[in-house]
User: Fold these one by one.
Assistant:
Number 1:
Amino acid sequence: MEKYKKQTVPSGQHISGQAPAPQINDTTRKGDKQSVMAAAPRLRIDRQNITFSEADRLGKGGFGTVYKGLWKDQPVAIKVVNEEDRKLIPIHVLYDDVLKEVEPMLSLKHPYVITFLGICSHETYGPMIISELCEGGSLQSFLERTKGPLPANLRDKFARQICEGVQSFHNKNIVHRDLKPGNILVTKEEDIKITDFGLVIDLNRTASAQGGAGTRLYMAPEAFALNAENLTTKADIWALGIIILELHGVSLLVLFQQLIRLRQAPDIPDSVPLQAKEVIKKCSSLEPNDRPTAGQLLKVLTGTSTPPPKPVSPSAPASRPASPQPSNIKHADEYEVVEASFKAAKKGECAALTQMIKTHGVAILDKRNDHGDTPFLAAASRGQAGAMPLMYDAYGPSILKQTYKNGRTAMHWAAANGHVAAVNKLLEWDLTLLDACDKTGTTPFITARYHVDVLKALYAKGQDKQNMLTHQTNLRDTVLHDAVKASKGDSVAQLLEWGVEAGVNLLDIKGYEGKTPWDLASEKPGMRKVMEKYKQ
């Protein structure tokens, strides 16, 4: 959660134009969600005024998912903590962290920064962050679709708008600390909105600046050594320079060795215009105090200030990374190879995967990405039933033992995402995957609650059908509890039908907080209607 960080202000003071942060003391931290929410009543949005469906998912990050919803008939973005993380983190800690991070952002009203509207308390999803809706996707996906330098007018507009947005929160002493194209949205009108989809929660809760490889590519050299709380606005300026470099069509993968291994300023190709080159050089100063402010950069980009000219030696062309060594993945090459393997696995590109395994060996299938996935887990999550056998044959049956950091197997991911073909392939290889539990005690059958066709495939192969129906997670919930919470009427009806056949009264099993599936449907008339004929 520690990504947006307001710099220290002397006790008793607050930044001009910004309301004081809610006072969250030790008593509040130890209390329940009601006491935490009471610490900042002006942030609270009434649950009755919020509507959304899990089918309207806009995106999912490491720990949070964003949905499109309505607040008093106004389209909004709704951010919730992922289910597995809600089960692992005490509820008051979730509210505490959300309040501390969102409060400074409420004072930001700028056309190029996403507007945060408030927090909604939900009995199932916990704290939900409500913000302005932007449906155009991220700048990262925009650049990937473009595949090359942007048109000059659009590129320059994006650079100016990002600088203006950064300047707006720097003026309030707010440091973003994770500025990158993935945290910048593009509207349908092709305007910029700076945001942070990781805002929902950071489970690491560590003092040091953390992030995946995608984040590290934008991290200033001092961020690798400093406590995150000691980072200044100058760390954002470094990231800003790297983003501008990317806007000019420069792939960061070729700069990996400089940016990550050597932690040097990037070489700038001759194709980058002189004005932009000067901006990037200033942003990439190794000494933080030598970097300009966002406002100073904006003046250069808008032509209202002329930077002092610096000679560029024609005899010093941009250096290039060493050629990949086919049989030995090291340093800069490793990142590119691993990224390529995940891309191939996610897209089911069998020929590319075959070549990578042949060139780099099966060890490439042990590599983890920033989220903790392996290529095999990534393929299962996306239902790539063609690529999975290729990896299984190359690696052997032990590849089925690979798990995500929360203990989920390939079967969990294939089932959760509704991929019947991938589920059937995994069942063909190992039926014991049906009984695998992640760290929250959740089985693949429970993760399949959203997809009745997957439930049927798993149930058909189950040896102990009664146990499949009555298995309870660490929080005591069954698959029916979770199906009711998700408002999946078809899954609820099928599970209840199986319950009758197995001689089990699923409606009366007490789960989390002693609630039965029937209790959970008290405010869901549609669910109650499905359940009524099974209620004894």
Number 2:
Amino acid sequence: MSVYLVSFWYVSFHHSLMYKTTSQSSKISTHVLAIYIAVGPFILIPISVQYFGQIISSLIVGRTKDVVSIVSSIIGILIVIPYLWIMVKAYLITLTFRPCSFMSIEASPQWKFFFTTLIVTFVSSLTTYFQKWPSLAMICISAAGYVYCGTTCFNGGNFVLELHQVMVLGGSFLGFILCCMNLYALLSLKRWNEIFFEIFIAIAVACFLLTQVYVRLRYKRDLVILDKSEESQDITLFVSKGKFRRVVGTGYTFCHPACINFSVFKAAIVEWPESIDLWAEYAKFVAIYPELTPTLIYIGQSINALNLKDSISTIIMSNIGYIMNTRETKITPALTSKISKLNKIFNKAKNRIRNIWDLILQGSVAEINHAIKSANEAVELADVEVSQLKSLYLNNRFVARQYAKFQGDINANAVEYKVWMENVIQLQAGKQVCADIVHGLGVFVFPSLPESVEGSDGKNMMSLTEMESVEELNDEQQAEEDANIEVLATLTRQIEKQRIPAIKCMYMSTCLGWFFTVFVPILALIIYYTTFREDLNAPLVFMYGISYMRNLLNMLAAFTAKFLFEELPDPKSPEEKVTDVIHLQEGFPLTGFGDDVRSREILKYLAAQVSSTSSMMSSLRSYKFGNELLEKARDMVFGSTIVFNFYTNRSMEYPMKSSVAQIAALIATHIGSLITDDEITYDDARGSDYLTATNNNDLATEQMSSALLVCLEYILKQD
């Protein structure tokens, strides 16, 4: 998970760097960013926090002390915290209704919901290895988190959709009830059964249904308050700023007249003139309509007059400036300076291109490569600058004219030049050529809102002075008459169709050379490596089985003796056993002993491993028949070449020829018979099962050691 989050950091950085240097974004980058913003913060980060909490819980109780877990937890925390900061400070606080999960009018409900989700997830994951009382404290913290999450639906700008309000509020109530049920189960030491689950499902259905009824009733009350406020012009009916911001959100959802004409906001800013949250919500709805740009400017001036030095004011002012740039239709001093700088870049690019033709006419072939490279750099710089300016001023005729000039004079794209000259004419007539993104997002989130505000001139985006309009229209018409666009387009297409045989041959030879010298050898190596890896892995499987079986036989013999000492009474003190269970250092791994220290349980686990280990050894039976070394190893393991002694007592034994696999199975059988007795006596220590199980491991382990040496010799002889 950390690798994925780090990789997204890299993609974001690469995307930002590419946009900064070229003013363009690849489609793949935009799709990756869109998918991550929709999935990453709300799914992947909580999953990461869950894993980090489990690791930290195991570290606290001493279950895990490896360095990898500690390092991964630190890295995970260092990754999650910046993501949380980005979501709160850079993504959620905006004056545009940017598409996002759980869309809200203000940023606070989103980041509080997101932050509470992470806290509850982390605290809940800590209970994985905690005992009773620490778990009790964590459940109480989770319950408090759910209560805090539920308050996001009561103060300030709420979630836009009714479904989201029901999910957050109902889910908070359900989470609190679930914590109470877990507290009962923890204190009473009872586990959840079928009845608990049935009760939980019934409570969940009831929570969401009752929450939906409550939300709809609150909608009705909010609309009644707006009606009374519109009639009486009494802003005190809203009681508080937080309730006002929530009620206004309901009004825009249902297109209430008092909200559409912004009369409630005008009264509210008089009542609470220093509330930055109120000004921000006012600006967010005003920004939907381009014709209310003067009102947006007034809001920006009012916020600036408050002299607030917090980050929210800075972000709001930055958003207002960006929105005003996208809707600026006149020439401003700042735009004049940018166009002047752009003209210098254009002149530089045209001079570099003209220099190429001069060198061709002079026959200076040695200098032409450097001139072409310099011209390409100048053209790319001009493209970056004009594209950046065009993205900032979407519907500005002066910027559009500069872009058309770039396409015609520098890029030599006659088709684009014609398109943008037509766009300039449209902009001079007061029409838009690019859709207003802020307006589109606002109308998409609130479909019931009107396309324009009544009483405003939404058709004319700008005013032209008489002298400027006449001169510019005549100049543009004359320029369009002089430009033979069709001829230029035909010449461009002919140039693009030209193919130089030497360059074509160079491309083909490069591709073929890469294919035969790089791709084909790599493919051959992959195929050969797969076969070679299988030839090496197959012996490793049965060698591991032989090695593990050798260890099992020795461990079974040792723990069988230890088992008798733990079960037999001490002759000097019959109330006690001869020895106690094995005492190991705290934190010693017991995976190889079945996670137990009692010899009876260890023997059960080890005896059960004999059958699975025998199946691993059995792959040697059919591996490469005819090989001299493998036939020898096969005979050592599966041939009846060693003696197995069956003991009836200490003086009576019956030898028989057996194989290693058979001896292992017989030893496991006798041990299983021995440990099934609930009470062990000294007769068992002299019995057949104990003597047979502990006196037949020497020859078998020696035989398996010899077989492993033969298998190793086989591997070393492989090419």
Number 3:
Amino acid sequence: MRAALSVSRRTLAKAWHDRILGMSAESAFWQLLSLPSLLIALLGTLGYAARWIGPDAVDQIRDWALDTAGKVLTPRVIDQVVAPVVSQILDQNRTDVIGIGTIIALWSGSSATATFVNTITIAYGQRDLRGAVRSRLVALRLYLFTVAAGVVVLPAVVFGPGALDRLFSGSWHRVISTIVHGLYWPVLGIVVFTGISTFYHLATPVRLRWRRAFPGAAVALILFLGLSYGLQVYFTAIATNLRVYSTLAAPILTLMYFYALAFAVLLGAEFNAALEERWPRGTRARAGEWLRETATRVRSRRTDEKTAELPEPAAANPGDADGATRHEDGAADAPGTRARPSSAAASSVEDGTMHAPDGTERRRNGASGTPDMTKRRRNDAADMPEEAGTDGSGPRRERAAEPDRDQAQADIDS
């Protein structure tokens, strides 16, 4: 639900930013401008095809064209202008009229399609990926595609399912009639839905997968049907109650239908673009990515469990890690310990001599020594510099003499 609301808000924001209201009005104008010339070109083509479709079909098309024009124009204009032109095009095969009508229809119709193409391209953020000339050529091709689809859909809408009923007779007529009336409009809706999806697919410079256009096509089709019904109810009420406005209702209704069609198609494109922004890789790609992420989490959890089951290693002795390297001369090898005597000092002890700081040698006087010698040794030791600290930094400091303690020790020794 939260995702649907987010996509809806994003669709409306993009639609407002891309000005689809103004673009819909522009497209509706070009569609209305191209309609007369397009009908002339189509009628001329049907006149050439009369030998294949039969004269009855041509007469039925003539009646439909005059009835449609009568909803927009006055009866006088129909009798004096439209009816002679339609009959001349269908019966005499006027090539010049067909040619001029085709050129005008291609120009105005491609302009309407170019509005669709540019707006859809902007909605997908691909405006700079295609130049103006290429966009116009793409719009022309899509317009021809739309005209070809209209040639198929328009007669189906005009003749309805009754035309198919007349093709079958006999015992199967009732069964076929039931099937045709039940499936006619759903099949026609599927054809229109497929055409809108294909239009979305071909309009963008970087084409996405065809099925990625289905949501927007569904939105466009449903929205157009709803707007068409609302317009029909609205203009029926106006034509009944307001006689002055009823004379202008037909052309305005036609323009509003074109506007509703353009708005529905462009809003469907904005909806597809909003879905593409939120889920750029599609449902199948997102499902595969979710499976890969789930497998990665499972493997990581199993690895953590195996690591937790392993025994913890024994704690290392801090003294071993902090031990210092031994020096070649036998100096201090570990912090917090006194420096061991060097080899020269050891030899001096063995031969019974002591090397003083001033370079003089003093012979050891027995194990205990005399009081005088003991006192002299302690005085010499007091004058010697203090050994280096455990951190090995800085010069040795001289220890201050302590006469009171030395005198007390001398009295004890004596």
Number 4:
Amino acid sequence: MLNSPMAARLQSLPPQLVFAVATVVIAAVFAWQGVGLFATWRGEEVSNARLAIRSAGSAGSGIGLEQVAKLHLFGEKIIAPVVEPVQTDIPQTNLKFVLVGAMTNSDAAKASALIATDKQTNRFFVGDSVATGVVLQEVRADAVVLKRNGKLETLSFPRADESAPSAPRRSAGLDRGFVRQPQTAVAPTNRPLNTPADRFSRGNPRANLAPTDKLPVRPVNIDTP
């Protein structure tokens, strides 16, 4: 039993009032504890949010102008490809080369030519170096194009009326399948083939030679004793 004045007063109160007061006190205690727990949770959440912001700031500190430039905010610059000028008027080369043969192909990389230099005749494909600073650029049916120190020059077949220098010796079978330069046809002689001298040369004793007819000279083998 409680002997304090407070206990005496509670005993004098109706039981319903005492129960209501106790309920209010208990509810207030639970409410206070709940507020404390909520404040603690909110504090941890705010701290975590601050840490996340700091981490994001640290990670974002590495973003520089280079990454911003990759975004192309003002549009992307288009770089046009470099096109080499096409040389239409290709002069004849003054190199002492002789074009012996040319083999064209639908695939330009497989086209080749026989070119005689000062040493010998060799087969060159497109892109090969013919001499120092001279590259075979293109093969045509009647000529080849050489790239000499960045400029194009033409090497054609020698004309029939030109006294082309004799080409150096080439290996057997090297010119198989190549287009050769045209040869000049030899005109037939106008001398009749049925003259008395011709008949005499064929062993006809009845040739009826005239005094002005010239007899062909035959080699005679004389056996000495």
